[in-house]
Predict the structure of Integral membrane protein.
Amino acid sequence: MALETGKAAGDPAVPAQPGGGARCSLELLVHGVGGTTPEEMLDDPRTVLITGDHTAGIYRRAVDEKAEEQPQNGQRPVPEAYCWSNLTSGNGARALWLVLLPFMVVNLAHWVRPAAPAKSAAQRLYDVAVRLLALSLTVQFVAAAVEVTVDLMAWQCAGSAHCVAGKSWLSFMSAESGGWWGEPGRRLAVGALIPALIAALLWWLSHRTWSAYESASPPPRTGPATPEKDGDRPVLSLPGFWYGRRLVARLRAAHTAAALLIIASALLAATAAEDSGVLAAVGRVLIGLTAVGWVAVLAVVCRRGRSEAEMEELDGDRWAVRILPGGAIAVLAATLVHTAWTRPGWAEGGRLPGTSFFGGVAVAQGVLIAALAVAAFVLQRQSEGRSPVLGGMAGPVVALLAGALGWVYSGGLAQRMGDWLDRGATPGDPGSIPGPPVVLSWQATVIPLILAVLILLAVGAGIRLWRVKRKVFGEIPGIYPDDAEHDRLSTPRSRSIAGAVARADLTDAAPRMLAVLAVANLVLSGGAVAGAWITGAVPGRAAEDAPGVVPACAATGQALGSWLVGALLILLLTTGRRAYKDASARRTIGILWDVGTFWPRAAHTFAPPCYAERAVPDLTWRMCTWTDRHKGRLVLSGHSQGSVLSAAAIWQLDPTVRSKVALLTYGSPLTRLYGRWFPAYFGSAQLTALHKDLATWRNLYRPTDPIGGPIDLEDGEGTDIDRPALRDPVCYGRTPEHPLPAPINGHSDYPTDPAFAEERTWLLRRLAGGKTVPAQPGKSSG
C-alpha cells in the first residue's frame, strides 16, 4: 500500500486543558505497508530512535526527544513515527516467499469466514476443513518435488540412455553405467534427498520467523476486566489473538512430518513389489510406522485450532513439536536405507507406482472445499449485520484459488521438467520417457485456458473502467461548482480526474472477478481430473482420434502450459524481488500481499510470517506505557494499512486506556476491504463497538483512493466518524492558493489536505474536554 508522508497543511496550536497547564499531547503516526522513512514521516532530516530497533521502532524529531519535560501550553502535539516497513521488506531474498503463495492464500481462507456465534459446530467444521486443506497443499507441494526428482530424474531419465545422454550432472546415476549409484534403489534414495532438503528448508523458515514474530507478547492488562461477556467481546480484543506461538509450532511439526512422510510413502510404494524375505518384513514395519505417523499428523491438525482467549505456551504440545518431526525423520532415514538396499533383478520401466496419488489429492481437496462451502453457508445464515462479499462464500472461493495455485505449481512444474529432461519429446514416444502422471499433464493443459479467463476478466475490467470514467467525466461540474475552468470538459484535466475515480472503483469489482475465476478453475480442474481418469493418457494422445484440430490444440495446450508455469515462477521471483526493493512496485502488487501477511498463521505454518504479531504489540506497549507515565492526550494517526494496525492495537488496550485515545484514520481499508472480506473481525458490529470505546474517531477518504473509503457503520452508528469525501485534486484549476495545478493524490499525501490539520485539532480538543462539534469540511475539501 502507498506510503504516507508529507507535511500537514497548517499546524494550528492545541488549546490548553481547562484549569491550567496542558500536559503533553502525542500524535503517533503509523504508515502503510509501502513504508517510508522517519525523516519523511516527521518532515525533518534530524530524527532519533526513541524505542525499538531498526526493524520496527518509534522515532521523533531531535528537537522533540525530551518533549515531555518541556512546557506544552499552546503547542502542537508532539509527532512520533512508528516505522515498521522492515517487517515486510528488506533483503531481496524474501522474494522467495512468493513461491509459497498458495500457502498464504489458503491461510486467508481461515479468516474470511462469515461473522457468526463462536464455538458452533459449523465453525469447528470450517476451521478443521481449512486446516486439512492446508495440509493437502503441503503434501501436494512436496509430492510434486518427489515426482520431479525421484520419478522423472532418478527413475525415468537416469534409467534411459536417450534421456541421460549429454547430462553429465546425472550420468553418475545412469543405469547404463553399471556404477554403484546406478542401481534403481540407490538412484531413488539420492533423488529423495532433494525433497527432504525442501522440507527442511520449509521447517527452518517457519521456525526462524516463528521466533521473530509469534514470540512478541502483548503488555499485561492491569485495568478492570472488560464488562462484556466473552461471547460479546470483539475477537481482536482477546489477549491471545496476536500470540500464536503454540498453534504455529504445532502446525509446523505436523506439516514437516507430513512432508517427510510423503517422501517415505513414495519410496515404500516403489519398493513394495520388489521386496522379498527380510526386506519385505522390514518394508511392512516401515509401512506400519508411516501409517502411525499419518494418524498422528491428522490428529494434531484436527485436534484443536487457535485459542485466542488466553496466551498459550508450548507446555501441552511438546510431544507433538519434538517427537512428531523427529519420528518422521527416523522413519524417512530408515526408508532411505531400505530403498538403497540391493535388489537383484530389479528392472526399471514406466512410471513409479502411485501415479493415481495426485488424482486422489484432487478429489480430497474437492471434498474439503465442499465441506467448507456447507459450513460457510450455515455460518452466514447464523450471522447478523450487512452481507459480506460473495454472500459469505468468500472462504470457499479463496480456498479454490489456493488449490488452483497449487495445481499450477505441481502440474506445470512436473510437465515443464519432463519436457526439459526429454528435450521436448512427447511422453510415450519411442525413445522418450513416460513423463509425469497423466493427471498432472492434464492439469498443465488447463493453464492456458485459465489464462484466457484472466484475459477476459481484464477486458471486462477495462469496459467497466471506461463506463465509470465516462459517467464521472460528466459529473465534474458538480464536484467543482466554484471553478469556471471545468466548463472545458474536453481538457486532459477532466479526463485525469475521471480516470483516477474509475480506477479506484475497480477495487469494488474485485470480488466478482475472483468468484468467476474460482468457478472457472473448478470446472477446468474437475474436467482435467475426469479426463485423466477416463482416458488414462496425456491430452495429446487422448485426443488423437478426435476430429479436426482438436489433437493439435490438446498437444499445444499441454506444451504451452509447461512453458507458462516456468514463466510464472520467474515472474513471481523477479516481481517479488523488485517489490521488496522498490516502493513504487510495492504499491502496484502489494495489496493482496499486505492483507495476506497481516493475519496470523492459523491454517498453514509455511505461509509468510504475520507482521502484525510484532507490530500490534509494539503499538499497544507504546500507548499503554506513554499514557500511564505522562497522563497526556494521544491521537493515533493511521494511514492505509497503518489504520488497520491502529484499530487492532486499540482493541488490545484495557478499556480505561482505550477511552483516552483518539483515532484518526485516512485512506483506511477498514470497511471497504477488511469489513467486507473479514466480517467476523472487522464487521459493522465490531467497528461500532470500537467507536463506542474510543474517546473519538475521525476518518478521511477520497473518491480517487483505490484502497481507502468511509467507515460507514450501520444503523446510523458512528455518523460523526466520516468526514465528507475530500476533493482530489483540491481545486480544478489555478487559484491564488494553488497557482500551479494541484496534484491528484489518490491514496497518498493525506496530510497535505487542510482537512487533516482541522481534524487532528478537533480530536485533541475533544480529548481535552473542549468543543465536541466535528470539524466541518472547508472549501478545499468538498
